[in-house]
Amino acid sequence: MSGTDMKLVVVGAAGRMGQTLIRTIKARPGTQLFAAVERPGSPFIGRDAGEISGLGPIGVTITDKPLEAFVEAEGVLDFTSPVASVEFADLAAQARIVHVIGTTGCSTGDETRFKAAARHARIVKSGNMSLGVNLLGVLTEQAARALGPADWDIEILEMHHKHKVDAPSGTALLLGEAAASGRGIDLTSQSVRVRDGHTGARVAGTIGFATLRGGSVIGEHSVILAGEGEQVTLSHSATDRSIFARGAVTAALWARDQKPGLYSMLDVLGLS
User: Fold this and answer.
1) pTM, to two decimals
2) CA dist list (Å): 224 to 19, 28, 197, 230, 231
3) For residue 227, how many other CB atoms are within 10 A of its CB?
4) Coil, strand, or helix at residue 241?
5) In DSSP terms, which residues pair with 213 in a beta bridge?
6) Which residue from 23, 56, 75, 262 has the fewest beta carbons nearer than 10 Å?
7) What is the pLDDT of residues 197-222, one digit of tens each?
8) pLDDT at position 45, please?
9) Would you please indicate which residues are annotated as catalytic (active-site) residues?
10) What is the DSSP string of 176-239?
């Protein structure tokens, strides 16, 4: 491990997660906010990243030129959009740096692009960067394996703020994948995302999702295992966005010393 502070770039710097990442980096020993990036045309271009994050001036001006920032940096923290994250992954591969991706709602085509970029970049991608949620995923896999589909149904319930644009959440899908892995089934073909009208009886072995949206909820997730006469619920509540930012910075520091490749938070936390 290098003895110097890790030079990090925050993309989507003016967004809620971007501002949280900037504050987290400033508070975290061993890291340095090297650059802050916003999309071309953003009204925040040219502003001080500390000022928009509530820290006061820190001498880092928001730019719309990511590659210039990446080639001089060691890592990029990215909670933007699928289209932007794919572009940033390509640039991170060119610069051969760490790319931590917390973006959700990515397609299978996007995932293919991330895998390609991971031949040269060290990419850590997760539907959720928090320690608690990743532990919940491990527990969900164990519970799904122990409580078989003949007698136990699995439902995943999630709620987020009214501005969230993708559903189910990346975290709900992470938990669904964990449950499917425990059962040895394919989530895509065995999940129920919508129920409306006369649905008939629940199909045994499927994994159901329910999505709630409203207010300012940061993230509530429950995995419900329902049997005859008993129910087990595993849940996680996020009360502060900084848990995701702290996880992302931890992931960047971990990936600094890894070979190029595509990693998850389970790798970072030693839970894989």
Assistant:
1) 0.84
2) 34, 36, 23, 11, 7
3) 13
4) coil
5) 160
6) 56
7) 999 999 999 999 999 999 999 999 99
8) 97
9) 160, 164
10) HHHHHHHHT--HHHHEE----S---SPPTT-EEEEEEE-TT--EEEEEEEEETTEEEEEEEEE-
